[in-house]
Amino acid sequence: MLVVTSWDFHRTWLLTGVLLLKSTSRHTFGHVQSYMFPAYFGLGSALEAVALATFVYAHNSWIWEWSVKVQASALVVSLFCSLAELVYVVPMNVDIMTRMYKIERDNDIGSVGVATSPEVRGQISELMARDVNYAGTYRRFFKWHGVSSLLNMTGIAANLIYLFYMTSKLQSL
């Protein structure tokens, strides 16, 4: 339980990134996140692997009840989400973000001013209108950013299912 709740707390703590987004430049925010996300999902994958291993060890019977199967499945889903983020989605997003920020720097956008300011958003809209390459890169980045958010929320939901069964049915460690 400690491992799973630590990971859920860690996921919730990541929401403080919104404060960073609202107080730093666009490129500073992206640079910080490019280091935080691999560490975040690396830790999450390790914690999920430990939780799954200890759960399977504690329930080493070949015949599992429904609630035990649900808990094991929830842990597997959460581990899959963390590993997918770590191995595929985050590196893809960082690569796309790096290319996008290079185009922005070449056009004097994003290095100064708060990332969410209307001025920066206006400059980005203008750049998207005149640069097809940037517009495609921008759309691709936010597509993968959405996939990342979906995987993260799915992992949180899976952990909450596991915690619900563990606490309500007392079927686990």
Structural commentary:
Helices cover 83% and strands 0% of the residues. It starts with a helix and ends with a helix. The radius of gyration is 20 Å and the shape is elongated. It is mostly helical and 173 residues long. It has one domain (2-169). The protein is built from six helices and no strands. α5 (118-130) packs across α6. The longest helix is centred in the middle third of the chain and has 41 residues, at 66-106.
Average pLDDT, all residues: 85
Radius of gyration: 20 Å
The N- to C-terminal Cα distance equals: 7 Å
Instruction: Note the run of SSEs as H and E.
Output: HHHHHH
Quick overview of this protein structure:
Residues 17-101 form the TMEM205-like domain. The chain is mostly helical and 173 residues long.
Record the SSE blueprint:
Layout: H1 2-13, H2 17-23, H3 26-58, H4 66-106, H5 118-130, H6 132-169
Helix pairs in contact: 1-3, 1-6, 3-4, 4-6, 5-6
Main features:
membrane, Xanthocillin_Biosynth-Assoc, TMEM205-like, 83% helix, elongated, single chain, mainly alpha, Transmembrane protein 205 isoform X4, transmembrane, 6 helices, 173 residues
